[in-house]
Amino acid sequence: MDIGETAIGIIRLALAEDLGVDGDITTVAACSPDARGKAVIVSREPCVIAGGPIAAKVFELAGDGASYRALVADGDAVSPDEIIARVEGPLSAILAGERTALNFLCHLCGIATLTARLVDIAKPHGVKIMDTRKTNPGMRPLEKYAVAMGGGINHRQGLFDGVIIKDNHIAAAGGIEIAVRRVRNAYGDSFPIEVEATTLDEVREAIRAGADIVMFDNMPPEMIREALALISGKARTEVSGGVTGENLSSYVDIGVDAISLGFITHSAPASNLSLEIE
Asked: Does residue 64 carry a catalytic annotation?
């Protein structure tokens, strides 16, 4: 996937939001229209880089276009005051694209950095850190890309490419067993069937119904241990809900296969990056 090409639509929206109809009125007034310039993008703190191709596309689309040369690959860690990219071209394009490019970079680097920290905690125990559909509108492909750059695993992209039978599906269908049966009849083995369980009784029902994956929803570690004993290897397992960066270590050594975390996309702190004209 070319993430820069994927992002073109939201990049155009972001540039239009910032430039409006009249463009960068400060640069138009203060700078020569023919001026060319060079700039560097600098990390002000340790972080994992994500979003270079997106920033490159921003500068390409801003004004008359400027070139972006990444010095650090997405997925690599950087130190404070490290130059991660160079930008060159019409000064008006550099300044027009500056904030939009940094908004993308700071947000996506923040996601990648947080994900990498959590992966470091979980990986020694063989547990995968996964994202969710709790993403900012229009930003899902980019935010999931950043998770992958941080070493995390992408869960389904949307409702169209994976089956998860959640509480409202169970209520609407009339129970776990009937919901699983209907999905299996509809899709056969095309999709693994994942079932959300909030109680041990629901875990038992999911296993009887033939679920491929059981998601433990907002279960404390003690209950998850009991649930794992009930499953006894008959299905893959995932924890979702109630897990934070602070208590993650209490969940990784229980024996689950994966932990899905919404906050790594919707609440990751932005990394501190800046653009400086040389």
From this structure: no
